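Hi Y.,

Following your request, here is the sequence exactly as I used it, all 41 residues.
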Amino acid sequence: TPWLTYSLIIQPKLLSFVTMNPPSNKPLTTPSTTPWIWPWT
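Below is the corresponding structure, written out as tokens. Let me know if you'd prefer a different format.
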């Protein structure tokens, strides 16, 4: 399904984004990952 492929592409991108972001932003981005993925599903 397209959404699955899209999600698989978004997840690594978000993961990379969190890694590139400073630790201070990490806790803020971590919980945001779930809400962002949920709507796509």
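Residues 28-32 have pLDDT under 50 and may be disordered.

Thanks again,
Q.
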